[in-house]
Recover the amino acids of this structure.
């Protein structure tokens, strides 16, 4: 009888950890819908400029994060793990996103300060122009 209980418990544990095709197909359809909506918004913007570019960028970022969540949760099986393991993977990823944002912000600040205060560097329309004779650089 002990073997039967052990076998039944093992079978129940296997069922709880088995990954169903239904969940994978559900995730596939969610990812497909998000992608089609993003593509439709991009086509609408390209054809008519009806929507604000910054608004669309926000929608695309949210859609990308949603797709990343579904991929990580279902296909990397993190949905079935304990919270501490999930956070040990998610927290460094969030720090990496902060790292990229901080360096892009700092690089843009350096570029703006360089254009403003370097007397030998004047940038117009992404081309470097040498200062003209008799004029102060950066002054129109």
């Amino acid at each position: 009888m002990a073997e039967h209980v052990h076998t039944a418990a093992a079978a129940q544990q296997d069922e709880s950890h088995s990954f169903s095709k239904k969940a994978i197909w559900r995730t596939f359809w969610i990812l497909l819908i998000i992608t089609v909506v993003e593509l439709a918004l991009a086509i609408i913007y390209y054809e008519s400029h009806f929507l604000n570019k910054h608004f669309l960028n926000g929608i695309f970022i949210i859609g990308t994060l949603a797709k990343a969540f579904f991929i990580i949760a279902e296909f990397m099986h993190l949905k079935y793990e304990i919270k501490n393991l999930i956070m040990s993977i998610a927290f460094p990823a969030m720090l990496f996103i902060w790292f990229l944002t901080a360096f892009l912000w700092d690089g843009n600040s350096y570029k703006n300060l360089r254009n403003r205060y370097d007397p030998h560097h004047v940038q117009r329309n992404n081309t470097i122009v040498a200062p003209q004779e008799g004029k102060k650089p950066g002054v129109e």
About this structure: The chain has two domains: 20-80, 82-119. The beta strands are 122-124, 127-129. The longest strand covers residues 122-124. The two ends are 94 Å apart (CA to CA).
